[in-house]
C-alpha cells in the first residue's frame, strides 16, 4: 500500500488522515532523520500549517511524534507552504513538515515533507519514510533526550522580504497597479496583501481572512469560483486579478477585463520573460540554462524554450519531480500548467507570491496590460477529462492499457507517431498529443490532450476515454466471470 501520492500524504481529515496516523508518520520521519544524522547533533524540524480547521489537531500530533524521536521542533504557525520552505532553506533547521492538503476541498488535509535545502522530499526519501512507517521500527528517545520545542512567528516576514529582494520594487511601485486579490481564506491571506502593499499596489481583497472552513470558495482557484473577482476587477478598474490555492504555492490570474488567463499561457509567458532576463545576464561563452516541466504541460512552453535556445526536460506530474530535475540540470525556470511556477533564484519550489511579483515586474518593465500576456505565446487548445473506475484499481487499468497501446498493432490502428511512458502513457500525433495517466491524488484516471484546434483536442479526449473504457470493461468482465 502506497502512503505518499503525487504531493505528500492526503486524505479526509479525521477519517483517512487521523491524528494517530499523523503521529505515526511523524515518528517515521523523525526516525529517518535520526538515522541519517546518527553521528551528529539531532535534527531540528520546522512545522507549519495552512488554515484548515483540522490543521491544529494534526500539527499537534505531528509535533508529538517528532519530539518523541528526539527531534527538536520549531512551530511556525500558519504559513504558506513556500514560506515554510524558504525558512528551512535559510534558517538553522534540518528539514520541514507542513500540514496542508493544498488545493483539495476543505474536508481534506495532508502532510508534506521538506528536505533541508527547502525542496520537497525526493521520491526515494519518501519511500524510506514509508518503509519505516509500515515496519514500525521507530526511534524512541529516552525521556531526558526528547526534542526541544520553540515557536517562531517571523517566517512570513522573512519570506516576503526574500521575494522583495529579487523584485525591482521601484519600477513596480511606479506603476501603482490596482490588484484584486482572492486568497480564498487560505494561508496566502497572511502574506499576499502585505507583499502587494509593499510593492506600491492598491489592493482590494476577497476572502483575505484566514478561515479553515473556506466559506468563500473551495481552496482550488478554478475559473468558475472566481466570478466575484472578475466583477470587482471591472468595478475597481483593476490592472490584474490574482487568486491562490489553500497553501498559496500556486497562483492564477485574470486580466484587466476580468477574463481568466489560462495557466498554461501564464507558465509559458512568464518563462519567456525569465529566459529573456537570463540571456541578458549571460557572459560571453555561457549557455542559457534549461527549462523543466511535466509531460502534461502545453507545447507553448516547449515553443518558448526552443525560441530562446534553451533545452527543455520533461518529468512526471508533480512539483517534487520538477524540482528535483531542476536541481539536477541547473534549470533557470520550471513549473506546471496549474499555476505552479518555480523560480530557482528564489527557491526550487512552486511559489505563488514570487510568481505574482514577477508578473507585476514584467508588466511594469515592458509597459504591458495583463491581457497582453495572452498574445505572446503560440495558441493551442487543451481538453481534460476524469474517469472513475469503480471497483477496479486505476493503476491496474493503466498497466493493461499501456501495454496494449504500445503494441505495433495498436499503434497502427490509432495512428500515433510515437509514445512515451514517463507518467502514464503519452501518445504524440502529427497534430497534437494525448496523455492518459492515473491520478496521484484521487482514485481515477486523468485524460489530457492538446492540439492546434479545439475539435482535434476534443477528438483526442474521446479516443482516450474509449481506450480507458475498453480496458475497464475487459477487467470488469474478467472479474465477473471469475466470481461466477
UniProtKB/TrEMBL annotation:
Residue ranges occupied by any Alpha-D-phosphohexomutase C-terminal domain in the UniProt entry: 405-459
Gene Ontology annotations of biological process type: carbohydrate metabolic process
Gene Ontology MF term list: magnesium ion binding; phosphoglucosamine mutase activity
EC number, as in UniProt: 5.4.2.10
The protein's required cofactors: Mg(2+)
Keyword field contains Iron: no
Keywords associated with the record: Isomerase, Magnesium, Metal-binding, Phosphoprotein
Pfam family, one: PGM_PMM_III
Keyword Membrane belongs to the record: no
Domain Alpha-D-phosphohexomutase alpha/beta/alpha: 3-138, 157-258, 281-377
NCBIfam families: Arch_GlmM
Family stated for the protein in its record: Belongs to the phosphohexose mutase family.
Protein name as annotated: Phosphoglucosamine mutase
Name of the gene: glmM
